[in-house]
Description:
Blueprint: E1 2-4, H1 21-34, H2 47-54, H3 58-70, E2 74-75, E3 83-84, E4 93-96, H4 100-109, E5 110-121, H5 124-130, E6 137-147, E7 153-162, H6 169-174, H7 179-186, E8 193-202, H8 205-211, E9 218-227, E10 233-242, E11 246-249
Parallel strand pairs: 4-11
Antiparallel strand pairs: 1-8, 2-3, 5-6, 6-7, 7-10, 8-9, 9-10
Amino acid sequence: MTTLGMSSRPGAGTPERAQPQYLRILDTLRERIKAEVYAVGTRAPSEAELCEEFSVSRQTVREALRKLAEMGYVERRRGSRTRVVSRDPTPVYTQSMFSLSELFQYALDTHFEIERAVPVRLGPDTAGLVSAPEGSEWLCISGVRRTAEDGSIICHTSAYINKRFAWLRDELMSFKGPFYALVETRGKEPIAEATQTFNAVEMPAAVRQAFGDTGWPVALRLVRRYHSKSGEVMVASVNYHPADRFTYTIRLQREGYGGER
């Protein structure tokens, strides 16, 4: 189980943002690779060169390069320059999540297409996933999450909202950020802890139908739970990703290390 840090958490009232700088740089570098400005097998510009060109911090450049590597366009090794490895990598969605602020940005950078929002009573299996009593009542909002770039499906999601916050249903249906942010702000009850677990499972038949493809029998199931100070689950989400099109990255970095890559 991975615990998400609570630092730098944006509130639900955060206005919709312009495209982050790292995404602007990412798009530019990707287009240059496709146009063979940076040919496969050659080195991409250094972090310092990119910082100077785009007038941004090294942290911003590193985030753009990290995303570019996750998408399969480049290869990065500590202590050496970034190398271009593909003009047209096989589509694989890679998710890297290290804080709630990054989870907030993920919700803004993708689109959640809601299929239904109904009250449900948890059966034994779902109760175990949500970490709530069997038979308890929750608001379930389900649908598919798509990339902003081409509308490809990232995952099927069922979000479970504690019935104490069911009165937020209409606002949740139109909210552009993560549901936990609206619940804690409008409900005036801070999220004290967020946890997530993931494991490989057989993809449920209903989820396969949502994808419109029966060729993905195995899924990576990622469950996130958002707890109040008392430990009560306020929001939980159950996400099914096609196992052959999704990777999840956890980065562990020694404090104080900083070097050219």
